[in-house]
Design goal:
- The complex is a heterodimer.
- Chain A is an alpha+beta fold.
- In chain A, 44% of the residues lie in helices and 12% in strands.
- The two termini of chain A are 29 Å apart.
- In chain A, 40% of the residues are buried.
- Chain B is α/β, with parallel strands linked by helices.
- Chain B is built from 24 helices and 19 strands.
- Chain B has a five-stranded mixed beta sheet with strand order 12-11-15-13-14. In chain B, strands 2-1-3-4 form a four-stranded mixed beta sheet, covered by helices on one side.
- In chain B, strand 8, helix 11 and strand 9 form a beta-alpha-beta unit.
- Classes of the chains: A alpha+beta, B alpha/beta.
- The interface between A and B is large, with 47 and 58 residues.
Chain lengths: 153, 604
């Protein structure tokens, strides 16, 4: 069970209207890091949407996570500028380095690896972000240099 | 009085510009320098040179500034009055240093209206915006004009929607004004989803008040009292600055009830989009605000009649709204004097890719692609050859060198098979495979298809599979025709612009780069040496001096060879990651990419 207290606190910032479903889901994810299964029914009850609708919305948008993600989030930018400056090779190198594929987390939930359509620092292409810190103008060799930084974190 | 403007757009922030600002402030305080202000700004535009510091009133431009450079700027420039030449922009060809930003070709060839205050005012301070005539247009509209006059002015300016479709903004407002309803809504579409595009975000980060002011005027013009700004949750800095700006505008009474005693009420809600490309489509965007899955619905009824929560609604792009204040202040005639016959005003682009000067630019409509890419963009990176320019993101097209003299406006871009789009412009060099680029965009649209229409949901998947086959050397001779047929079906059978335009990158690459498709299909060859399945890496035994760098860096131990002896790649082990090519020192350049199978053929 997720902590009910926390959920009630999150709900207290909203009126409980159907139109608030997406902001409510965002707030719940902010609190728990993902959308725990047992929060779905409670969100449905609170907003007056059906459970299937809540799940439908949660699974539709890229922002929402239905499973826990790693402590350290690594995002490889796949924007067009990054793509033409070698992002596919960078992604493969990161995957090799972490031993996981795009969209997965390491079994110890230390790291999760995702791609993002564009973070908009195109002048720095190719770019990856590690916990919101941006590393740009990366070469293949740089990948190993920037990734171990996380272990200290 | 001197002001140091430290750019804090997302690009410069990524290169540690906030630390630069902190260091500057600290040293200035320690040196007891008076009459010097340090201000953060939004994107100044020349992202390639970031982090950027502008010093006014001199107009000095320091680029690629590091935290280590701060002491010298303070000591030399601020205390001793000697400018720091090594931080000046250098002309790439002649190496000539250019101290003032207005003399740098990247800036001097632009005409900035939307971007006028980007990078020259503090984006988190309403006073700075007011100082540059901010909210004057709102005063003028609300105090001296009746709503119909505002609409007429916007109509007369010839402004067309900057989201990409180019529908006349004034007409859109007129429809909404004429619609019956007790409540009307205005939505600012800041769901900028095209990969390689950051215009709207930069504007929101740099001059959020210009968007808010435009929205208040628009609301007044067609009778909306409530507005939404739908902005991507992936834009945390834009959201932060918008929140600050909305609070400041409310405090001053520029948002809320009875604005400037005009009787006009208008307030704003910031809605964070949850990451779905299709929500850039207006009916999907509205569904999203209503708390539903972002799926488009058929039009009519158009949003102007039945939009958000069933009420009359107008949806405008960030740039369109930013242009309202200058149009009201300077007049329709002035705006209409810029641009071409049917496309008035300026166009904003995020210029990126294999180009020397990546950044945010604004030019009059009708400027040629050549002028943008070579005049402002400084040409192709590393002296490579130009191959294509992609505009309009996943909905747009790739144009070859033969179309570089195309004037950029709605009509001319459409005539050559591309689109103006919202403003992403990605330049590609000779090392880009156009089939791979088409595959890249289809991969994107296929993932982002909302699934509502069969032709889009299934068709994009089929196209992606075919393109993947071609890039892997498994293409069939009939594939090109099949792609064209599928494109036609998806375009005609899809409800919204996502599906209707998804085939564009494929259609334009087939139209202009058909021989590349044919090389992949008929010869199993990728001419740009990009597609992994069709290339090999090879070490030239004559050039290799045995420095062992590739040996040490190969992640799969596929390289053999002794120090000082020539090295060899074992093909069976090689995963083609490209590491050996990257680490081989430039003066040896012993590693090459070659078409797969060339060696065997040569041996036979």
């Amino acid at each position: 069970m997720c902590e009910d207290r926390k959920l009630i606190d999150v709900f207290s910032n909203f009126k409980g209207e159907k139109g608030e479903l997406i902001p409510v889901l965002q707030a719940v994810q902010d609190e728990f890091g993902y959308l725990p299964n047992d929060t779905m029914a409670k969100i449905a009850k609170f907003t007056g949407a059906s459970e299937s609708n809540v799940f439908g919305v949660a699974s539709f948008y890229a922002q929402f996570r239905l499973t826990p993600t790693g402590k350290n989030k690594i995002n490889v930018c796949r924007g067009t500028a990054c793509h033409v400056r070698g992002a596919p090779q960078i992604l493969e190198e990161v995957e090799r380095h972490l031993g996981i594929k795009e969209g997965d987390s390491t079994p110890d939930l230390e790291y999760s690896l995702e791609t993002v359509a564009c973070i908009g620092c195109c002048a720095l292409a190719p770019v990856i972000t590690i916990n919101d810190e941006v590393f740009g103008k990366l070469s293949l060799k740089d990948v190993a240099k920037v990734l171990p930084k996380m272990e200290a974190a | 009085m001197r002001t140091l403007f430290v750019c804090q757009g997302t690009g410069c922030v990524s290169s540690k510009s906030p630390e630069i600002q902190v260091a500057l402030e600290k040293l200035i305080e320690e040196a007891n320098l008076e009459d010097i202000k340090v201000k953060l700004t939004g994107c100044h535009g020349f992202c390639q040179q970031g982090p950027i510091i502008i010093i006014e009133p001199e107009g000095i431009f320091y680029g690629l500034v590091g935290v280590d450079d701060v002491a010298e700027i303070v000591e030399s420039h601020l205390i001793n009055g000697k400018q720091v030449e090594r931080l000046f922009y250098k002309e790439p060809v002649t190496g000539k240093a250019i101290p003032k930003y207005e003399d740098i070709p990247f800036y001097s060839k632009q005409e900035r209206i939307v971007l006028k205050n980007c990078g020259t005012i503090n984006s988190e301070d309403i006073e700075d915006y007011i100082e540059v005539d901010g909210y004057k247009a709102m005063e003028k509209a609300l105090e001296d004009m009746i709503p119909d006059e505002v609409i007429e002015e916007v109509k007369a300016s010839g402004l067309r929607g900057r989201g990409g479709a180019g529908f006349p903004t004034g007409l859109k407002w007129q429809f909404c004004r004429d619609a019956k309803g007790d409540q009307k809504y205005l939505i600012c579409n800041a769901d900028e989803g095209d990969p390689g595009a950051f215009m709207d975000r930069s504007i929101l980060e740099a001059t959020p008040h210009s968007v808010i002011e435009g929205m208040v005027i628009a609301g007044y013009a067609f009778g909306a009292t409530k507005g939404y700004i739908y902005v991507r949750a992936e834009y945390p800095l834009a959201i932060k600055r918008l929140k600050i700006a909305i609070d400041q505008a409310r405090e001053r009474g520029y948002l809320g009830e009875n604005i400037l005693d005009s009787g006009h009420d208008f307030d704003l809600i910031l809605f964070e989009g949850a990451g779905a490309f299709v929500c850039g489509e207006e009916t999907a965007l509205m569904a999203s605000i209503e708390g539903k899955r972002g799926m488009p619905r058929p039009r009519p009824p158009y949003p102007a009649v039945s939009g958000l929560f069933g009420k009359p609604t107008t949806i405008n792009n960030v740039k369109s709204l930013s242009l309202i204040s200058p149009i009201i202040l300077k007049g329709a005639e002035w705006f209409a004097s810029i641009g071409t016959e049917k496309s008035k005003g300026t166009a904003v682009f995020a210029l990126t890719g294999n180009i020397s000067n990546s950044g945010l630019i604004e030019v009059p409509m009708g400027t040629t692609l050549r002028e943008i890419i070579y005049g402002i963009g400084g040409g192709i990176l590393d002296g490579k050859q130009f191959k294509a320019v992609q505009s309009g993101g996943p909905s747009g097209g790739c144009l070859p060198a033969s179309h570089l003299d195309t004037p950029v406006d709605y009509e001319n871009m459409a005539a050559v098979g591309s689109i103006m789009g919202s403003g992403g412009m990605v330049v590609m060099d000779e090392d880009t495979c156009m089939v791979d680029v088409a595959r890249y965009f289809l991969d994107f649209t296929q993932k982002e298809s909302c699934g509502e229409c069969g032709p889009c949901r299934l068709g994009t998947k089929q196209m992606l599979d075919i393109l993947t086959d071609i890039t892997e050397g498994k293409g069939k001779p009939t594939d090109i025709d099949l792609l064209l047929e599928l494109s036609d079906a998806i375009k005609t059978g899809s409800l919204c612009a996502l599906g209707q335009t998804a085939p564009n990158p494929v259609l334009t690459t087939i139209r202009y780069f058909r021989e590349e498709y044919e090389a992949h299909i008929k010869e199993g060859r990728c001419p740009a040496l990009v597609c992994k399945e069709l290339i090999d890496y090879k070490i030239d035994a004559e050039k290799c001096v045995g420095c062992h760098l590739c040996f040490n860096n190969c992640p799969v131990d596929a390289i053999t060879g002794d120090v000082r002896g020539p090295h060899v790649i074992e093909m069976e082990k090689c995963i083609k990651c490209g590491m050996c090519l990257e680490v081989c020192p430039e003066n040896f350049s012993a590693v090459d990419k070659i078409s797969k199978g060339i060696e065997q053929e040569a041996a036979q």
